[in-house]
Amino acid sequence: xxxxDSLPPNLRLSFKKxxxxxxxxxxxxxxxRIESGKVGIYIESGEKEVCLAVLGRGEIIGEMTFLxxxxxxxxxxxRALEETRVEVWHPDRLVREYQKMSPIIKYIxxxxxxxxxxxxxxxxxxxxxEKKPSPDSELSISQRLFYRKDVDISCEYRSLDTRxxxxxxxxxxxxxxxxxxxxxxARNNLNFPHDPGKVFRVRATLPNGREVEMDAxxxxxxxxxxxxxxxxxxxxxxxxxxxxxxxxxxxMP
Amino acid sequence: MAIDPIVYGYVVKxxxxxxxxxxxxxxxxxEWAYVVLKGNVKVAKMAPKGIINIDTLGEGxxxxxxAMFMRGSxxxxxxxxxxxxxxxxxxxxxxxFDAYASIPPQIKSLFETMIRRLGDTxxxxxxxxxxxx
Lengths: 253, 133
Prior knowledge:
heterodimer, A: Jelly Rolls, Thrombin, subunit H, 2 domains, 6-stranded antiparallel barrel, 4-stranded antiparallel beta sheet, 38% strand, B: alpha+beta, 6-stranded antiparallel beta sheet
């Protein structure tokens, strides 16, 4: 019998909305898989909390700590955004499986991990305005309309950071596979904050009749030229394959 | 050449590119992964107000792995451009997939989570930089 079978079965834990599952800076080694609910991943940067991602069923928390293969403090905090159940994975079992992984995949995985750690650092700095990397203009790639389309599509959106399932109306002014620009009435702000770092769920019917629903994180929010309106720039978060396809078709020139 | 034999063993073809040549174009389709054998490449992404440089990769760096491992979407999430003349190795995708298929399921979901999160984070960085230009 394989030794792994003698390890205790995976534990299950429940969290209420607002509970911390893992805290940045802690030396936890557990890995969690979300069975139900939603979890926000935050990094503390200066005095602000920056939301990196909103994770749902089947997604993993704590993989960075494990894959680093060293005892390092957790790079981010995880907080339950609603009633959440997680399965706790036994690190010993994973370590054993990790050892069996083929060297080429390990080689690639190490590089991906390093890039991810670097990107996380950059985003923390950007959000607090610490440093703006200067963009490079020497590259000679043709700018294609494929990437970003100016549109005017009415949509509904809600905040994933609040309990209130209030859907507000707005209009999508531009759309790409990376993000979207949202134009809304400034008064909407009274329902829930429209600030950078907040995560919205946006649903709309595209002009071609296809419905899309996507989660996106606010990166910019500013007063629009029209008084009493806001222009909000959002970056798409892990969108489904289906949504990616629908957007891809719609955005094609 | 200081290329790790682990990755060099997967190179099936070598390609030379002149300075500023586009090796991968964002938004196009393609599922091959590559390794930089000599020189440097820049990773760039379209932002609302122009092109943003995300990273510079040197010898031994693998790129194109995101489209390859991202649940079969095969859409390139960034462009890769030669920074000076470069020598690129194309990796054997069949053997790579075989290696990938042999990973235990829990490790596989860790790996996929990581790649997905790299995509999300890079998107957010691109938007932040792009909007502030």
